Every structure is written in structure tokens, then in C-alpha cells.
Amino acid sequence: MDMFPEVQKILAKQLRIADPATVTLESQIKKLGADSLDILQLLMRIEDDYGIVIPDEELATFVTVGDVVNYLNAQQKK
Predict the structure, then answer these.
(1) From CA 68, how far away is CA 26, in angstroms rounded?
(2) pLDDT at residue number 15
(3) So what CATH class is 4-76?
(4) Contact 15, 34 (CB under 8 A)
(5) Which residues belong to the active site?
(6) Across the 78 residues of the chain, what is the mean pLDDT of every consecutive 10-residue run?
């Protein structure tokens, strides 16, 4: 399952972005207006919903929405 639509929807809601379609794989998370707490909340929700554990050291490497999606997609295949 591709995680992009779910990440896109969660980020748009969390950051109060009116049009979720403006959140793309290339979007830089911080330029969307997210701070580290927003990113942590996004990942905690995904962990709860999908049972995927994201180590803190991985969290620090996420720059774009695509980075998050690629990591989550890889974890689902394990």
C-alpha cells in the first residue's frame, strides 16, 4: 500500500492546508509550516494506525514528504 495519500491527508489536516493536493512528494516538510512537534505527531499517528515503529534517528533524516513516504513504504514491505 502506498502511504502517500495517507501522509498527504494527515499533514494537510494537521497543518491546516486547505487543498491537500498542494502537498506533494517533493514538498519540504518545514516549508509546509511543520515544526518538529508537527512531524512527531504525524509519525506517532502513523505508528498508531499502521503499527510501524519509526526510530528517532530516522526522524531526523526526513526532509521531504517523499522521505517519509519512502521510509513507510519500505517498512510495510518487511
Answers:
(1) 11
(2) 92
(3) mainly alpha
(4) yes
(5) 35
(6) 89 93 95 86 85 84 92 85
Residue with cell 502506498: 2
| Cβ neighbours around 77 below 10 Å, total | 6
Domain ranges for the chain? 4-76
Q: Are 76 and 1 in contact (CB under 8 A)?
A: yes
Q: Indicate the burial class of 64 (C-beta count within 10 angstroms; 0-12, 13-18, 19 or more).
A: middle
Task: Tell the residue number behind the cell numbers 491537500, with chain if given.
Answer: 20
- In the chain, the amino acid numbered 58 is E
**pLDDT value of residue 38:** 85
Closest among 18, 17, 46 to 32, alpha carbons compared: 17
On whether the CB atoms of residues 3 and 73 are closer than 8 A, the answer is yes
